[in-house]
Amino acid sequence: METVIKTERLSKHFGNFIAVNEITFNVERGEIFGFLGANGAGKTTAMRMLIGLSKPTSGAASIAGFDVYRQTEQIKRNIGYMSQRFSLYEDLTVMENIRFFGGIYGLREKMLKAKGEKIVNELGLASERNKLVASIPLGWKQKLAFSVAVLHDPKIVFLDEPTGGVDPLTRRQFWDLIYARTLEGMTVFITTHYMDEAEYCNRLSIMVDGRINALGSPSELRQQYAASSMDEVFFKLAREARRTDN
Amino acid sequence: MRTIRFLLEKEFRQIFRNKTLLPIIFMVPVVQLLILPLAANYEVKNINLAVVNHDNSSTTRELLSSITSSGYFQLTHIGSSFNAALNRIESDEADLVLEIPSGFERDLISGESKTLLVAVNAINGVKAGLGAAYLSAIISNYNQKLRLEQWDNAGSATLPVINVTSSNWFNPYMRYQLFMVPGILAILVTMIGGYLSALNIVKEKETGTIEQINVTPIRKHHFIIGKLIPFWVLGLVIFTLGLIVGWAVYGIIPAGNLLVLYFFLALYLSAVLGLGLLISTYAETQQQAMFISFFFVMIFILMSGLFTPVESMPTWAQTVSHLNPVTYFIEVMRMVVLKGSGVRDILPHIGAVLGFAIVFNAWAIVNYHKTN
Amino acid sequence: MPASSSQLLTFIRKEFAHVLRDRKTLLILFGLPIVQIIIFGFALTNEVKNASILAVDYARDEVSSEIISKLKASKYFDVETTSSSHLDILSGFQAGSAKLAVVFPENFASDLRHFNSAALQVITDGSDPNTANTLTNYVRSIVIDYQSENFTTHGNASGIRAEVRMLYNPQLKGAHNFVPGVMALVLMLICVMMTAVSIVREKELGTMEVLLVSPFKPELVILSKAIPYLILSLVNVASILFLSVFVLELPVKGSVALLFAESTLFIFTSLALGLFISVRAQTQQTAMLISLLGMLLPTLLFSGFMFPIENMPKALQIISNVVPARWYYTIVKAIMIKGLGIGALWKETLILGGMGMFFLVVSLKNFKIRLA
Predict the structure, then answer these.
(1) pLDDT, tens digit, 9 for 90 and up, residues A90-125
(2) Would you state the torsion angle of the CA atoms of residues B22, B26, B32, B33, taken in this order, to the nearest 10 degrees?
(3) Residue B279: its chain C contacts at CB < 8 A?
(4) How high is the pLDDT of residue B279?
(5) Which domains, and CATH codes, for chain A?
(6) Under a CB-based contact definition with an 8 Å cutoff, are residues C25 and B287 in contact?
(7) Chain B, 319-358: which have a CB under 8 Å from a chain C CB?
(8) Cβ contact B159–C153 (<8 Å)
(9) C170 pLDDT band (50/70/90 cuts)?
(10) Residue in B closest to C143 by C-alpha
């Protein structure tokens, strides 16, 4: 089993404020790892360190074997990323977005065309391929964004609250896409607020006030906290948090 | 290199798809180039003169006719009350008042000297200065003529006279537009390059799309090049449009080598875009980018020698003017387009602009962190 | 209605918070007028001085040397002597190292002695017509001076003299023209830009819809956006007046209260114009480009303070009537420099107010339609 994400006492300080406090966890290849926590717990800050957007203050971490301090360029080549806020250019068409991001990751002309066809067909967007992204419904946008994020077959894909604002059926379809990828060996690192999605993960961690207070599979955590659902587990942990949004 | 190709594809697609932006970028400069040079005119003519005449003699009439035939002045009022004439100034109907004292002709003939009073509405210092100077010159010429007649009549030997002939090169009809059009074009191109590059990048910051780019393996400098090249091209296109307007509407045919001009332009655009880039690294919102750009553009325009000569500025201001890239561009435009200056003549300008390009871009790149 | 006035207060407070939090923009909003006053007050002048000229002396006799030393002594010129050829003139002009050349032909002095006349040739770089004309006139007057010093037989400076008196502005300080101009320019641009962008921003972010769905009247929303900028602009007016009175020594001849009242009216008109733009612009970028690109140069040129409106072609004079800044500039000049009161200014005031109302009414109509 290959460990694709390794962190050891990873921390981020902003002056006196400790946003991320010595988190330690590993993620194995092919896992779906849920990274949970209340708003303000430090999830986003931690993730930014993992994807090379922010330098840690202390501690160690490696992504796909590359060190987050010195090898951020290699990390970026081997990961995919999708944020809730933005992934695609609204004023470009479906195909143009695929072309752009594929080209950025070094895909060759032929490959780009082939992958482009594959994606639009898989997602049922074949007739929409020349429409501006701004004009397609949110659910499709999200699925497309995910497909674009993994266009270059990265080892790991980081998803930051990717399914906000869509109906349960669309979320289900989104997860089908995720599963398909993990079967091919991709690792998925996902943050989410939806506790039912937490159940879909192989393992997850829950951050509270900058620390990881729970780490394990959904069933392990339910047992540990004598809870009947992940909702309850989360509630029990988050209740003790001192930090909230603002 | 491939990444740059994809970046450029994306940028150009986005620019051309923006239906409101495109017309503004092309139309606004063209329209301004058509209208503004016609407005920017320092030629002073139609100066309104009110005359207070206390001496109704033929000498006075001769003097007045030489004044009005000069073409600079329009006689709007002639009367015998100084106050009435002053009222004309207050109501902006007159710019100057000329008062001719009583006994003017009689005293002159008897050899006394006479003083004429010229009262000038000096609110507009330029107009006032020039108006007073023209009037004084006409009076002095008339004086000269009178004295020559007097000496002639008195039978003395004629005085030696130095005739000053003047000829104006490069601009035979002394059209002020020739002077202003290249300068205004320079400013327009600068504004487009500067504003667009600053706003564009800050927009990506504001909407968060820049984060998505940051997570990809796109190199810092590739991203920046990908951002700058489209505006660089736009700058060249708009400049060309401007030259065409200059030729078609104002009859300005560049006297110098177009290649030299474009070479300089290419360098200059790199500097201006670099400045836009630099501003974008300091601005968090589009609004800030707009204000900071506006601030600099305002200062650049005023201190560039577009409206007032750099040589007349105090030393400290001249230094500031030489730290202003626009100053160099306007000079080069005027030199190459109007006078046919060559590469050797603009070497110092090339050097300066190259320096700006390097400093601005390097500074901006250092500022632009992909990683915190 | 007490309810809506406390609502209004809430909105105003929110808008103030937005504005005050943006330090960078604030710095520029307050710094810009100050910088402009400094530039106009101390750096810019239309006077031509320190001009580099070339003396091409083929004669090399006592007359030419004396005239050349007079030229050197003049503050208008920096003389570079050369005795070479006309080619130096062209290269000098092209390199920008000379603006005018004075050519003394061979046998200059002896021609004067034997034929009582000699020709002095003045060649100017006509690409800058104003400077060329002014410098030529300076040379002429120096030559006339030389003649009257050396060629009058009786040394009697009899004849006509003109005594020039400058009204309102005895020292010909440019301040009289530009302080009102700076006020007009700064107020108009800042108000237009700030309102346009601030409103469009809310449109873009979607928060505008939230506001409009609420029970608050849209007029209140807009009013609340205008008020902080109104206050800010009045602060700017005060700081400009302060600088004008104490640093530039240009006092306010008329009523300060009237000045502030008219300024408030102008600010209202500019804010309404900003609103007008914001209704049409879909994105911040568009709003900004329209303000920055489309309004900066025209306002500068059509307000009348840089170039006299009377000199412009009729068509442009008509256009200038549509520029609010032009009316405000006239009003401020009248109050500050001529000391006139509302009696003389009712026409301009009405026009300004009318423009403001027009923009406001049209915008409010469109505003409601657009977001319905």
Answers:
(1) 889 999 999 999 998 888 889 989 999 999 998 888
(2) 170
(3) none
(4) 93
(5) 1-24+35-40+52-70+202-246 (3.40.50.300), 79-193 (3.40.50.300)
(6) yes
(7) 320, 331, 334-335, 338-342, 344-345
(8) yes
(9) low
(10) B162
